């Protein structure tokens, strides 16, 4: 049986982050306007110790006895139990000192920490304007273009590497230099009950039309078609992406989230997606009481036999574990997209632009994200981006890996709608609740969402 490590919970993290978003953005502006302690702005934008191949023990040995200071999310503890010993064995002159922090604590303090005289050499951040954008804008983290090439990361990540790319001034998201590396892929997809679909005479849906047919058949048979828990407010937004990703071009959605000039979320395709999604909420296709049910409780109910589908993140495989009873597939195709839904890599790893141990830091980040890193992730049941040497005996884990490969190969990751602005989470989730309840029109929601985006982009 799969024992899946659920180290990522995007809705909770993003919502908490937004409470401090304005303060973080303001701090970033202040930091960008002056030299950070320990170096000038020009020094911070210089790529020191540029590499063309993986860092060797001899190169790191030349640094002498050093301590590598690292900040990491507390969800990384299981992975670090294997990474740190392997690293210290390969680079015996280095001692790794890690401070594990809750996501809330990490994202609230990392900007000031990286600007201090005692900045960690390596830290995790978070994609989007509020954290990674602020770190880039203040010139506190090193560009990693040379590292992603040397460690064969660029090819494995594919087009989804754009979530780690920024212009050097931190004003453009989704293109430019790579500033972080993350070893695992998180995605929203469909868990389904194999026996119930078989009883309905249906296979796993691969298109939106097939999904719509399956939902109607399940409802006619007296089953709950979709089990959903949305007490965290973010889960409905993520589940909605399964529909939106099948009706709107993925490149348009990603362009809007990353701030592409002229991008627009207020489109006929998105209006159609909202209308369809809200109709499911109102006609009983989605389980009753979803706003008062937690995602964990909904997943647990599904794992016990309730419903035919559970729409949610692959991290819910920690609850829906039985791969012989349940399957996991990526979002259905449509609008020229394949496997398009909310999703992203895990929290990226960054290297301080002020570190005096850059080669040791590169070696550490490279070990986590390099071509041979997949087995470390698989050992703690996280879905690796690098798949060399990775084998999966568990049926559920096999399906998670297959879905991830399909999404990455087809650029189906839509990222998260709330990345679009520091205040988008609260607006999008609240308005979506109202639309699902029939208390607001899709047109009004889309107009409000686009207005929020335009106001942020204007700044």
Please tell me about this protein's structure.
With about 450 residues, the protein is of the alpha/beta class. It folds into two domains: about 10-185 and about 345-390, D-Maltodextrin-Binding Protein, domain 2; about 185-345 and about 415-459, 3-Layer(aba) Sandwich (D-Maltodextrin-Binding Protein, domain 2), CATH 3.40.190. It contains 20 helices and eleven strands. The strands form three sheets. Strands 6, 7, 8, 9 and 10 form a five-stranded mixed beta sheet that branches. A four-stranded mixed beta sheet has the order 2-1-3-11. Strands 4-5 form a two-stranded antiparallel ribbon. Strand 1 (about 65-75), helix 5 and strand 2 form a beta-alpha-beta unit. Helix 2 runs parallel beside helix 7 (about 130-135), helix 12 packs across helix 14 and helix 19 (about 425-435) runs antiparallel to helix 20. The protein is globular and about 70 Å long. The model is unreliable at about 1-45 (pLDDT under 50).
SSE inventory with pairings:
Blueprint: H1 10-19, H2 21-32, H3 41-44, H4 57-61, E1 66-73, H5 77-90, E2 94-101, H6 103-114, E3 122-124, H7 129-137, H8 145-150, H9 153-157, E4 165-166, E5 177-178, E6 185-193, H10 194-199, H11 208-220, E7 226-227, H12 234-247, H13 250-257, H14 268-282, H15 295-303, E8 309-313, E9 326-330, E10 343-345, E11 349-351, H16 358-369, H17 374-379, H18 395-409, H19 424-436, H20 442-458
Parallel strand pairs: 1-2, 1-3, 7-8
Antiparallel strand pairs: 3-11, 4-5, 6-8, 6-9, 6-10
Helix pairs in contact: 2-7, 12-14, 19-20
Quick structural gist:
The chain has 459 residues and is an alpha/beta fold.
